[in-house]
Design brief:
Elements (H helix, E strand, L loop, with lengths): L16 H10 L6 E6 L7 H14 L4 E6 L5 H4 L4 E4 L4 H6 L3 H5 L1 H13 L2 E6 L3 H12 L2 H8 L2 E8 L3 H17 L4 E7 L12 H14 L5 E3 L6 H7 L4 H6 L2 H8 L3 H26 L11
Parallel strand pairs: 1-4, 1-5, 2-3, 2-4, 5-6, 6-7
Length: 299
């Protein structure tokens, strides 16, 4: 009987603390940035956050490159001229071929070199499960942390979490792994309020996990709170294959044609999405470094 083991994340030499500190200070106003959107499981808001960052940067007239690490990608359909897909190797493939992850993730190095020259924003949407495990294995073994530092590219890992106890614990574990293999990256927790706020009754498992695992991670760290969008507002635009930018910039006639609804309905839905973006884009822009005209950065 063969015992299955999970591939171990091997960490090679990384940037030392002094180099990381100097790198962080230097890049506070730098334009070249890599954004990871990550989370412990599917459906937690990773790709949604990635799309908000992408559309915000595009609306701010910044150059954007996109990589989606997933076997069921959606971003290349929305951004065909900007996005590529990487299918992470499976567990058995990584076990039988020690260079499988290095080979598959080679396009990430090309993307970094490209955005370093153009001061663009690179968004890497990392799928959950094996996609995430393979990516972290690559980051550690390829010394990707040091490579980004050497190229002068700022790295930000946006880690999604919801108020579910299991999801919070898993997000805390993910942040711990990131700190180990990617110390130069700024880790920004994204608190997704889709399923409710992060306020719990004293003595409950959720309260204990939040106090013991999440609260310490939030201390002295930038974070983003992602509010819930008005119920039913976004799925109709998403089903029509529209980006956030398209949804708020389209005129009434275009929305009526795309959504197949009356003027009153599309006007109300567009207003809901615009209100959501007026809160979210300034928050994400403050982290990533973009400003979308017409949106109040103080919200």
């Amino acid at each position: 009987m063969t015992t299955k083991t999970t591939p171990i994340i091997q960490s090679g030499p990384r940037a030392d603390k002094k180099t990381i500190a100097a790198h962080t200070d230097l890049l506070k106003t730098a334009g070249a940035t890599v954004i990871y959107t990550m989370g412990p499981k599917g459906g937690i808001g990773k790709s949604l956050t990635g799309r908000l960052v992408i559309d915000g940067a595009i609306a701010a007239e910044q150059q954007v490159r996109i990589v989606q690490i997933d076997r069921a990608p959606t971003l290349p359909l929305l951004y065909p001229d900007k996005a590529i897909t990487i299918e992470a190797p499976g567990v058995e493939e990584m076990r039988s071929d020690s260079l499988a992850a290095m080979r598959v993730f080679e396009p990430l190095e090309e993307m970094v070199l490209s955005i370093a020259k153009s001061e663009a924003v690179g968004v890497i949407d990392v799928g959950a499960g094996q996609n995430q495990r393979a990516f972290l294995n690559f980051v550690a073994r390829a010394r990707f942390d040091r490579f980004l530092v050497d190229q002068g590219v700022r790295s930000i890992a946006m880690v999604l979490m919801t108020a579910d106890p299991s999801a919070m614990a898993q997000s805390a574990n993910l942040i711990g792994e990131l700190q180990l293999v990617h110390p130069a990256a700024e880790i920004v927790p994204v608190l997704n309020l889709r399923d409710g706020g992060f306020k719990f009754l004293a003595g409950t498992p959720a309260h204990k996990i939040y106090n013991d695992r999440i609260a310490p991670l939030l201390k002295d760290r930038r974070r983003v709170t992602l509010p819930a969008i008005a119920a039913g507002a976004w799925p109709l635009f998403e089903a029509a294959g529209m980006t956030f930018t398209e949804a708020v910039m389209a005129d009434e006639a275009a929305l009526i044609a795309r959504l197949g609804m009356s003027r009153l309905m599309v006007t109300a839905l567009q207003g809901d999405v615009s209100e959501f973006l007026s809160v979210v884009w300034p928050r994400l822009g403050a982290i990533v470094g973009f400003t979308v005209g017409g949106f109040d950065a103080g919200r």
